[in-house]
Design brief:
3-stranded mixed sheet; alpha/beta; 367 residues; single chain; 6-stranded mixed sheet; 14 helices; 42% helix
Length: 367
């Protein structure tokens, strides 16, 4: 699962990225955490992992993770090469969702003004600047593919025809300044073509409102504007104070909890960001548990048992026989897997079983 974090200069994007990717020592356990200086790994907080370990003590706990790519250089004119331009626009084509940081704060932590790149604080204008650049980049992609696709479609091959039909629908939408996600695509071949195009504005968006310390719930007029904008396009919104989250990310467990209590928060806002990104992408977790590790695995909602097994290893899906499944509630009641089996609560599920959020699974396979 991978998301790209975008925003104009001086909106707090880098502060948030650093807080997100420094917020847990768990990130250091992942070798891909330092592939590039602008890529980080964010564990998805899940108290169910700790609950499982009370009954099945493991050598290590491995949470589900969100990879975050810091997309720098998106300014007005980026689609034409301004700032760092196309170099970073290409990075965002690879991610599954966009985390769009929007400035809703007015002053810096010390009370001084932080100069906005456009001279004033206006979150909707900022959103539209970024959106315009991404739409223009997508329009360039569509127009660049149009002629070749039109010629290919004349051959009558189903996938070529579907691709050209999709481009014909996308071109006017993008030309009108609307994102590709405004187009509903039901045809299977066109859905495949849309995925292959890698259009930036076809991705789901989570707006992260960077708020003042006095407005942690995001109730200011600026935040209200962002909420209304996001609701119209079916996107998600999370208020975050980058300054506070940066401080929380540096604290130990006890100190962090003390600060959260003082602020009246149940969890760091960045945990809410991770959860919201998970929800945005239609994902859920199931668990595997043993002496070696207790681990959360990420799957799409609606995944079958073989598909869930395939996330661990492709051989598990290819040679799937059955799954042994129980729940955390079963474990809390019966205290061990042995007792769960003796109570008849260990379910045997086949290839058609749709894995549920929070299932604890063992997979049997033969290749």
């Amino acid at each position: 699962m991978e998301a790209g974090i975008v925003g104009l200069p001086n909106v707090g994007k880098s502060t948030l990225f650093n807080a997100l990717t420094r917020g847990s020592a768990l990130a250091a356990n992942y070798p891909f955490a330092t592939i590039e200086p602008n890529v980080g790994v964010v564990p998805i907080p899940d108290p169910r992992l700790e609950a499982i370990t009370k009954y099945i003590p493991p050598q290590k706990i491995i949470p589900a993770v969100l990879r975050v790519v810091d997309i720098a250089g998106i300014v007005k004119g980026a689609s034409k090469g301004e700032g760092l331009g196309n170099k970073f626009l290409s990075h965002i084509r690879e991610v599954e969702a966009i985390l769009h940081v929007v400035r809703c704060f007015t002053k810096a932590p010390g009370g001084e003004e932080i100069l906005h790149v456009t001279g004033s604080v206006d979150p909707i204008r900022d959103i539209e600047i970024i959106n315009t650049e991404l739409i223009l980049a997508d329009l360039e992609t569509v127009e660049g593919s149009y002629g070749k696709s039109e010629r290919a479609a004349k051959g009558g091959k189903a996938e070529d025809v579907a691709r050209f039909e999709l481009l014909k629908k996308l071109k006017p939408i993008l030309s009108e300044g609307k994102p590709a996600r405004a187009l509903r695509v039901d045809d299977h071949e066109q859905q495949k073509a849309l995925k292959q195009l890698g259009l930036i504005t076809g991705k789901r968006v989570l707006y992260i409102m960077n708020v003042d310390e006095e407005d942690l719930q995001g109730t200011s007029p600026a935040c209200k504007q962002v909420r209304e904008f996001a609701a119209k396009e079916g996107s998600e919104v999370v208020p975050v104070c980058a300054k506070i989250e940066s401080e929380l990310a540096q604290m130990s467990g006890a100190d962090r909890q003390e600060m959260l209590d003082a602020l009246g928060l149940t969890e760091p806002a960045l945990d809410s960001v991770a959860h919201a990104a998970y929800h945005l992408l239609g994902l859920q977790s199931y668990f595997t548990a043993g002496e070696k590790e207790v681990r959360a695995w990420t799957i799409p909602i609606g995944a079958t048992a073989p598909q869930a097994a395939g996330v661990i290893h492709t051989d598990f899906e290819r040679g799937f026989i059955r799954a042994e499944v129980y729940t955390l509630a079963d474990l809390e009641k019966h205290k061990s897997e042995k007792a769960i089996k003796e109570a008849g609560r260990m379910r045997i599920e086949g290839k058609d079983y749709v894995v549920q959020n929070g299932d604890i699974c063992h997979f049997l396979f033969n290749v």
